[in-house]
Amino acid sequence: MSRRGDNDAVVVGGGVVGAACALVLADAGLQVVLVEGREPPRWQADRPDLRVYAFAPDNAALLATLGVWGSVLAARAQPYRRMRVWDAAGGGELDFDADALGREQLGWIVENDLLVDRLWAALPAAGVRVHCPARVEAVEQDAHGVRVRLDDGTRIDAATAIAADGAESTLRSLVGLPVSRHDYGQRGVVAFVETELPHQAIAWQRFLTTGPLAFLPFAGGRSSIVWTLPDAEANRVLALDDATFARTLTTAFAARLGEVRGVSARAAFPLRRQLVGEYVRGRVLALGDAAHVVHPLAGQGVNLGLRDVAALRELVRGAVSRRADWAAPHRLQRWGRQRLSENTLAAYGFDTINKVFSNDEMHLTLLRGAVLGKVGCVPPLVDLLWKRAAGV
Ligand SMILES: Cc1cc2nc3c(=O)[nH]c(=O)nc-3n(C[C@H](O)[C@H](O)[C@H](O)COP(=O)(O)OP(=O)(O)OC[C@H]3O[C@@H](n4cnc5c(N)ncnc54)[C@H](O)[C@@H]3O)c2cc1C
Fold first, then answer.
1. Cα–Cα dist 292/297, whole Å
2. One digit per residue, pLDDT tens: the chain, 392 residues?
3. Measured in angstroms, how far is the CA atom of residue 164 from the centroid of ligand 1?
4. Which ligand 1 atom sits closest to the C-alpha of 304?
5. Which of 35, 80, 256, 289 is the residue whose CA sits 20 to 30 A from 18?
6. How far apart are CA 384 and CA 349, in angstroms?
7. Is 166 near ligand 1, meaning CB less than 6 Å away?
8. Is 56 inside a domain boundary?
9. Ramachandran sector of residue 264 (left: φ over 0; alpha: ψ -120 to 50; beta: rest)
C-alpha cells in the first residue's frame, strides 16, 4: 500500500464528522491521527446544547457500529415518530409517519455536544492518536502521501489528509479546493421552549413567508426551535424580552402547541449554501461542513457529513478486503464524485424548498398549495422531504 510515515490518515477537525471519520477508519484497521484546534466540549446534562440535530437512522446505525450510539441513547436522545409540515398561507399538510415505514421512529433529536463528547470518549480504545489543541498550518503532498504541519511545530506524515475542519476549513484552503458560496440573508434562531401542549414526539415545521419555523421534540417535554428569519428580523427577535419573544413565537407558530411559556437563552447562526466543486485534491479529501454547508430546514447538516463518512468506510472496506490501495487516486476520485452529486442535489433541493416556501409571490403560493394540498402532486420535492426526514 502506498503510504508515507506510519499513518494511513490524518483527520483535521474533531467535530461530529471528523471524530466519526477517525473512528470509522481506525475500525477498518487503519492508523489514524486526529488533529483538533480546541478542547472538545464536555456534555453537561443540565446545560443542553442549543445546536441539536434531527439525527437520521442510517447515521445512528453508523454510530452503533462504532459502539457510540448506545451511550448517546442512554444519555439523551428524543425519538420523533412523525413529522408535520404545513404552510402559513393555507393548503394541506404533509404528515410523515414512522408507522408507514414500519419503524419505531423517524429519527432522534440529539445535541451536538453530546455526540462530540461520546465520539471522543471512544477514540482512545480505537487507537486513534489525538493532537489537541493544535491547528493545521501547512500541508504538502506528493504521489505517495501528505505531510501536515501543525502550529505547535509537529509534522505528521500520512497516506491521506482529511479536511473535516468545518465551514471555514483551513486544510481545504491550503490545498485550494474551489468553493462557491451563497448567503441566504437569513439566520437560524435557536432556543429551547416550553409549550402549553405536549409535543407528542412530532417534529413540526411551519413555512412562513419569512422562512420555516421548526419545533423539534426534546427531552423533558421541551421543544427545540429553529426559526429561519431574514437577518434584520432575526436580530429583532433575539433582542426581545422573554415574554415578548414567547408571544411572538406563539403567533408565528399559530399556537399549534398552545402558548409558548418558558424560553431558554437564544442564539442565531448565519445561513448559507457553501459547496466545494471537488472533494479530492491529490491525497486530500474534504467532508462534512468543510465540503458542504446547507440550509438547516431539513436538519441535514450533520447527516450529510456522516454519509460522506459512511461512503468512505465502504470504499476502505472494499479495497482492504481485496488487498488494494484504498487511497489510490481513482478510488478517492470515485468517492468524491459520488458525494459531490448527492450533496449538491440535497443542497439545491433544500434551496428550492426554501425559495418556494419563503416567498409570497402568487405563483409560488399556488405551487405550495399544490404540494401541500395533494401529496405526490410534485413527486421529486415531496420525495426529497420524505427521504431526507427518514434517512432513506
Ligand atoms: C450555532 C449553530 C447551530 C446549528 N444548528 C444546526 C441545526 O439545527 N441543524 C443542522 O442540521 N445543522 C446545524 N448547524 C450546522 C451543523 O452544526 C454542521 O452541519 C455540523 O456541525 C457539521 O459538522 P462538522 O464536523 O463537519 O463541522 P464542525 O462541527 O464545524 O467541526 C469542525 C471542527 O474542526 C475544528 N477546526 C476548525 N479549524 C481547524 C484547524 N485549522 N485545525 C484543527 N481543527 C480545526 C473545529 O474546532 C471543530 O471542532 C448549526 C451550526 C451552528 C454553528
1. 15
2. 445 678 999 999 999 999 999 999 999 999 999 999 999 999 999 999 999 999 999 999 999 999 999 999 999 999 999 999 888 877 677 888 898 888 999 999 999 999 999 999 999 999 999 999 999 999 999 999 999 999 999 999 999 999 999 999 999 999 999 999 999 999 999 999 999 999 999 999 998 989 899 999 999 999 999 999 999 999 999 999 999 999 999 999 999 999 999 999 999 999 999 999 999 999 999 999 999 999 877 677 899 999 999 999 999 999 999 999 999 999 999 999 999 999 998 888 777 777 776 665 555 555 555 555 554 444 456 556 556 555 55
3. 9
4. 19
5. 80
6. 7
7. yes
8. no
9. beta
Cell of 373: 394540498
Domain that holds residue 327: 7-51+62-70+113-181+272-353
Query: How far away, in angstroms, is 64 Cα from ligand 1 center?
Result: 21
Please count the structural domains in the chain. 2
* Cell representation of residue 118: 461520546
Cβ–ligand 1 contact at 374 (below 6 Å): no
What is the position in ligand 1's atom list of the atom closest to the CA of 165? 34
User: Among the atoms of ligand 1, which is closest to the Cα of residue 268?
Assistant: 1
Cα torsion angle, 290, 292, 297, 301, sign: negative
Residue 25 Cβ < 6 Å to ligand 1: no
Query: What CATH number has the domain bearing residue 287?
Result: 3.50.50.60
Q: Are residues 278 and 372 in the same domain?
A: no
Q: Whose CA is nearest to atom 31 of ligand 1?
A: 15
Question: Do residues 201 and 217 both lie within one domain?
Answer: yes
In terms of domains, do 224 and 324 share one?
no
What the block records as the C-alpha cell of 22 is 477517525
First CA to last CA distance, the chain = 34
